[in-house]
Every structure is written in structure tokens, then in C-alpha cells.
Amino acid sequence: MKKAAVALLCFGLLLFNKPIQAQEHQHGEQGEGQAKSLGEVHFATSCAPQVQTEFQRGVALLHSFWYAAAAEAFARVGERDPACGMAYWGVALSYYHPLWQPPTEEVLRKGAEAVEKAKQAAAKTERERAYIEALGEFYRDWKTRSHGERAAAYASAMETVAKRFPEDKEATIFYALALRATASPADKTYSVQKKAGALLEPIFKEQPDHPGVAHYIIHCYDYPPLAAGALDAARRYAQIAPDSPHALHMPSHIFTRVGDWDASLASNQASADSAEKNELPNDELHALDYMEYAALQQGRDHSAEDVMKRAAGVSSKNGYDFAGLYAIASIPARFAVEHKDWTAAMQLTVPAGVFPGGALAWTEANLHFARALGAARTGNTEVARVERGGLETLRDTERAQKDPYWPGQIEIQIQVVDAWIAWAKKQPEDGLRLSKAAADAEDASDKHPVTPGPLVPARELYADMLREAARPAEALAEYEAVLRVAPNRLTALDGAAQSAELAGSREKARSLYARIVELTKNADSQRAEVQRARVRLSSVD
Predict the structure, then answer these.
(1) I need a labelling partner for 530 at 20 to 30 A (CA). Which of 121, 236, 241, 431 fits?
(2) Rounded CA gap, 342 and 457, in Å?
(3) What pLDDT does residue 122 have?
């Protein structure tokens, strides 16, 4: 059995041997450890003086997406000062996670009730009442209006608050986040993200220790063409809020976009350790997913295996949320696919009783995709079709949930599987056509913040097919397109180098092999990509 298969089997055994109860919204749950250093916020309220410190702490927790802890902080404020309408505003806002999963009906009900309490408490200032009314727009008619409609209404209301109270920078910061949440994944001009980022950048200069400003700049610029603009914020955020696991992790979004794997590894190691200390299993798993991806890009297979073992041992008393579930599926799937160990990929197991379906059905898609891809690449087309059926079920489940994003992503995976089934059945033109369509569809959207990247880029798989079809010049162009979006991605660099050599571009091949050798200078494995680059670099004239 190959090394990858052995490592994946160990992951599965560890995961099966622990009790699991899946839940939807635990990301950011508060553990026994209490965060102390969360950055500096200045949110004036008319509430009693003795609750001001706790209120500021609640706002700081919100800005680092530590939502459950924020809700507890605001609840304590309300207990100590029942007339503090903003305490209930804070509780209601902690139920809305703009860049994560849409809230469930139960969560929406709780949020709406908290808004009503905020209104009944009769906030003492016009500004506070404006905040409460604005948030009310998100919860208004939640039974009949879609999540997108309500998110847009809240963003519009917060824009009004920010304009009415221009001296209140918190209003602008919360408006920027609400605005960013309305961005369409299909908008490749990133107009909304740029607008939100432009609101935040001047405040970042004025308040360099504000956690939300640095955090939201990262989310605004977490795209290949924009990522360089968030490097300062990425380098600052972990220093601003070092006791927040999420703050320690978020810089790696930008480090991933620019291919700085050393920085990503360090960021996620710190985040995972902090999450473990604070008993935040979903945050720990989320960091480990990014950490494994970074390790694999440098040929650090032993490190990636250690991440898999650690992830398999992470359990949650309250179940797993979307980030934890996604990591549970993606960490073993990514290890097999990155190694192109198609047998190991086909033999991946879907742990029973872990994935809850419904609005979180998409979280298990990578396991089915890896199994289907592995089967197709080894010629087991019947097995591939079975797993393709599993992907169809997940896609249809998400469509029934009216999810605006994940059905499209799963459909891309289905197209990729269809392409490789056609290829295995000696239908190369159909395979290439379907593979290119999948690549184009993936390029038309963007990755979700939950992932460091797709399990394997559809365009990279298209390039692989072109190379296997003895069309190396075309393959090289496709690999280079992948590298523009995912710099320093090891398998794309390797494919590009091989294609350049086959196409007779020996100087380019040598340059690419040299990049791989530098990228993997600290490799701890005998990865084919690493060994090939070292051998070919000395052979290519």
C-alpha cells in the first residue's frame, strides 16, 4: 500500500473512533480559556459606566468573528444594565455571520427576538437607535425574504448610519463588512470588495490597532488580483489580536493568495495551537486545513501527515460547524489528490454520522469528488459514476436550500468527473471539451473563504489532460493560467515545467524547475515533483 494510502487510512480510523454529533453553528464557540488581547475598539454608548469595558470587549470579539463569546459578553452587559439597548443589539448581531453560512430559522428567530428587546429597551441616543433599526432590516420578515435580500437591506441601512454619523468610525467599519457580504462571487471586477476596502483603508491609518479594520481589509482583498493590497493588514492583524485564533489564522488567506507558504504555515500553526488552548475545535480544524495545503506546496509530506493525524484527533463536545466539517472532508482528500495517488483517493471513506446534510451537505463534496476522480483516473468508471451520483445528490440538496454558491461548485466537480470518465473510455475530444468547460466555469466564480483553494483547480486538471494528449504547448498555457491565480502551487509548477520541456521551451523549463527546487528546499519527502525538478534542472540545457 502506498504511503499516501496508509496515512489516509490512519486518518479514517482515528475519525471513526470518536463520538461525533454534527451541528451547524459552532465556529467561534467560546472555550474555557478567555481571550485577553483582542485589539482596540472605541464604540461609545449611553449604557451604564460599569458595563463599558465589557461592551467594548464584545465589539472586539465581534470584529474577530468570535461570535459565541461576543454574545455572552453582550448578554452580561444586558444583565448588568437592562436599559442598555445596545447590549441586545450586540446579541442580535452575533447571530449574523456575514461571510459564513446563512443563519438557520432557529438562529434568525433568536436574532429577531434580540432586536425586539433592543428596541424595547429604548436606546437613549439617536445614533444607537439608528444602529438597532439598521440591524432590524436584516431580521425583518425573515420568514418571507431571502437571505440575500435581507443582507442587502442591512448593508443599505448601515450605509445610511455611516453617512448620518460620519465621526463614528465604527458605523463605517460595520457598514464595510455588511457591504462586503453582498459581493457576488461572479463579479470579477470586485467592485463591491474594492468599495468596502476603500472605506476601511483611511481608518486603518487612523486606528492601526483596530481588529475589525485589518480583518475586513483581508476579506475585501482575498482575491488574486487584490491580495497584495492586504499584505500590511495581514501582517498586522495577528499582532493586533493575538489571543484570537481567527486573527492568527486570517493572515494566511493573503499568504495563500501570494504563495508565501512559510508565512501561511507559521500563521496556521499559531492559530491551531490557540484554538486548541481555547477549546475551539472548528477553528483548529480550519487552521489545519490551510496548514496542510501550505505544507503540501513545499513537499513537506511528513508535516502534512502530522496535520492529518492531528485533525483526526480533534473532537468537539458540541459538534462541528461548516468550517470543521469542510476540513474533515478536505484534509484527507487533499492529501491523496495532491499526490496524484488515485488509488488512495478512490479508497477514501466517508465517515458515517458526521455530515448532517441539509444546508451543510456541500461540506462532504470533496470526499465524493476525490473518490470519483480517483476512480476515473484508474479506469474504474462504474465506481466513478456511483460517486458522481453522490455529488448530484449533494448538488440537488443545496439547490433545495436555495444556496446561491455551492450547487455551482459541485456542478463543476461533476463536469470534471464526466471529463475524466470520457477520457478513461477513450473519448478524448469529449474529455477535453468537458474539462475546459469545467475550468471556464470555475474561473467565472471564486473560492469560498472556508477553503485555501479548490481540491485541485479544474484548469490544472484540464492542463493535465492536454499534456496527456501530447499537446504540451497548450498545456503549458493552461498551467501558467493556474499559477497566475495560485502562485507557487507545486503540482501546477511541475506540470508547467514538464510541458515546457516537451514543447521544446528548454529555457522556460529550466526556470520552472529552478522555482520548484527553491520552493521545496525544505521538503521532507521523496515527492515525484521534488525529485523530478532536482534531476531535470541539471539535465535541461
Answers:
(1) 431
(2) 16
(3) 77
pTM given for the model: 0.89
Q: How confident is the model at residue 22 (pLDDT cuts 50, 70, 90)?
A: very low
Interhelix angle for 52-63 vs 211-220, to 10°?
20
Phi, psi of 41, rounded to the nearest 5 degrees = -125, 155
pLDDT digits (tens, 9 = 90+) for 200-222: 999 999 999 999 999 999 999 99
State the DSSP string of 254-269: HHHHHT-HHHHHHHHH
Q: What single letter denotes the amino acid at residue 472?
A: P
Query: Could you tell me if residue 489 is left (phi over 0), alpha (psi between -120 and 50 degrees) or otherwise beta?
Result: beta
Domain with residues 30-279, CATH architecture = Alpha Horseshoe (1.25)
Q: Return d(Cα 538, Cα 46) in angstroms, integer.
A: 71
What is the domain partition of the chain in residue ranges? 30-279, 479-541
The H or E element that residue 185 is part of is: none
State which amino acid sits at residue 377.
R
- Report the chain's mean pLDDT, rounded to a whole number: 92
Cβ atoms of 397 and 361 closer than 8 Å: yes
Q: What is the model's pLDDT at position 10?
A: 53
Each residue of 178-209: b (16+ CB within 10 Å) or e? bbbbbbeeeeeebebbeebbebbbebbeebbe
The pairs formed by 475-478 with CB atoms below 8 angstroms and a separation of 24 or more are 475/499, 476/500, 476/503, 476/505, 476/508, 478/439
401 Cβ partners below 8 Å, 6+ apart?
358, 359, 361
Closest CA to 299 of 528, 85, 73, 116: 528
CA dihedral 417, 342, 332, 25 (to 10 degrees): 10
Q: Do residues 337 and 345 make contact, with C-beta atoms less than 8 angstroms apart?
A: yes
